[in-house]
Known about the structure:
The structure holds two protein chains of two kinds. By secondary structure, chain A is mainly α. Chain A has helices at 2-40, 48-59, 63-87, 94-132, 135-141, 146-184, 189-199, 202-228, 238-268.
Amino acid sequence: MESTIKHSYFWLFINFLGKRTMKIINNLGAVTVFFAVSFLKIFRPKQIREIVQQVFYIGAKSANIVILVGLFTGMVLGLQLFYTLNKFGSEGVLGSVVALTLIRELGPVLTAIMITARAGSAMTAEIGNLRISEQIDALYTMRIDPQRYLISPCIAASIISFPLLTAFFDLIGILGGYLTGVVLLGVDKGAYFYRIHSYVEMVDIRGGFIKSLVFAVLVSTICCYQGYFTHLRTDSYGAKSVSLSTTSAVVFSCVTILISDYVVTSFLM
Amino acid sequence: METPLIEFREVTKRFDEKTILDKANLSIYENQITTIIGKSGSGKSVLLKHIIGLLTPDEGSIFFRGKPVHDMKKKEWEGYRSKISYMFQNNALFDSMTVLENIALPLRQTTNLRKKEVNSKAMSRIEQMELTDAVGKYPAELSGGMQKRVALARALVTDPAIVLFDEPTTSQDPVRRNVILSMIAHYRKQFGFTAILISHDIPDVFFISDRILLLWEGKIGFSGNYDEMTRLKHPMIDEFVKSIEGLRDELTGLLSKEMFRSRYALTLSGGRVDTTITAVLFSLNFDFISNVLGPQSAIEVLKAVGEHVNKYFSPLGGFSARHSKDKILTILPHIGIEEGWQLVHDIARELQQTALPEIESLAKGKIAADGCFEIFVYAGVTESSSADDIEQIMKKAEAKQEKIARYQCGKEGGLK
């Protein structure tokens, strides 16, 4: 008797696992198609104005937060690495370590997370709100393709803004490391920049650039998808569904950034 | 026989296990106002969304000028959709855009017009809808009625051939409701589109409708005009239409048309009249007032006439109802024709002295400095035999109509 119960629980678990897996595969497929269609629609007419607006919103308006986070990340890196390198008498390489850490890893990841928090969540909330108030249906009735008008500019603007903001983050971060390493802790100014010049290669910059592009695609697609299909949520309706979609978008984006960071890094190494 | 502009043949739509449209058949004809009525949740919006392609039928076909829409090639389909506009129940205005941006959006995104041309076309619609003061405002800063007008302007800016209105008068007061309906009728005449309306506002919506379709248990249970519907003795009509019509017309405070008919039948059968009764028919130059002073002024004049008719005739045992957009019929069982005329002139005097001048404030800003307009109220008093039905009485009274009250602007352009 007991073994029959255990047996049925086992099959229930397998059934649940199978259903979850199918659901995840379905969602992945839907997100991929959603991205592919939206990406192709970037090249339709009348997109420039919308893309420029989104670049301003996602890119320019995120610059402040990126500067702030970049500066303090660079400063704390300068402090921590000086302390560690000092133990080995290698504080002269501080510049190169700060620069490589930022360019290869922290720059793309932290910039993507910052933009997710600031612009990604706003994308989901705005698109979700448009969906529940029938404004997306209204676009359709006016013969305006909602995906072309709303989603494609966000994806295009993210692809443009993420690498630029990442580069910005890297530069400010290196400057932050300079402030703590050189100005506060007395590392040689010439050595700081000389080591950066000597050790940072194009392949490092290219790696960071590729990561920022991957994150741009992932974050914008996940955030737009969550907003666009907020009405299909089965766990809530109306404003609550927008709030849950926004939370899901931020959580999925951050987790996906970290997972894809590992995957991309392993390919680039 | 005229080919319908839009035709549903055996259209079925299900959501999960629930069948919303069940082999529905309907025809919509060009240049008419067709009103779809039905219980809440009966699938009226679903039906409308099928026309514009927001939903597709599970079974059956939709035809446009005899051609199945779902077999159309992409270009034909786009051409079909370019002829249709949709006004949403909640307006669906873009809240982050100004009134001008909202109205210009369809032109900016779907045409190759230059910015200047787009703005000029949008501005002309804004002026027609009397929204000039709201041009730079956001939807949240506007009243419900103004938002409706913005939604209507946006729906009309592309010069559509067909406009679908999903409950355009929901949650509006009786005056505003009639203003919106008059506006739809007025602009349909002006721009010549085919209108398809969903509305629960009975009887107001019937006064502007050419055809009425009753959606009942997923099928079209009735199609025809208002008079055909009221004459139809069918439990479906009794259960739905008469249940929501109410006893009184909310705008004028007069009896509903159905109550008027019952009261008339009762008066005749009760033997309280011998062979003749006195009937008075009031009307006004509604379309002219609506064109010149706007629909709200026309509705206010009608409302004032209704209130005065009620005030003078009800205490004398008379009963009245609005029989069309601008006609009010009163039956006076105990009053002779001379006395009837005397009362009509008393009403006219009071209207001229008090109610009509109040239209001045509503008309402000709508009349050019050198512009001129006239408001006329007509009345006809007739004797009628008990053998006459209401339509015959109306015809007789109409033949006797004359101007009883007049309000005219002066040469200076002001009202006097």
